Amino acid sequence: MLGFRTRNPDRDRETDAARIQKLRQALFDVRSELEGEKVGLQGRYETASADAAFSQQAMEEGRGSPEISTRIDDLTTSLINYSRRIATLDRQSAFIGEMLVKLEGYPGGGEARRRQAAPREGSG
Hints:
The protein is mostly helical.
């Protein structure tokens, strides 16, 4: 009869915890990318919004050139596109948050985080 050997359960748990930690870190990295893109878009949105408001005011006061109406239309389109993209990023970020919560509840998920936070033997 052949003897079937399995790995040490402690080693399996460590391997699983390491994989979960890699996944957690990847999710944090993606969330950070999403936040960076959102911050950039919000800045451009605010700039375009202010520009559109001043352009509209100039047009209403008769100080604008004929091209100002086209500029306002272009800025309005940009604002709509920025808003849509920000909403998409918010949905993606919420999804990542849900994945992190699920990962925490996954067997070994909380353990991986605790191991990462715990000081290692011989250090300190």
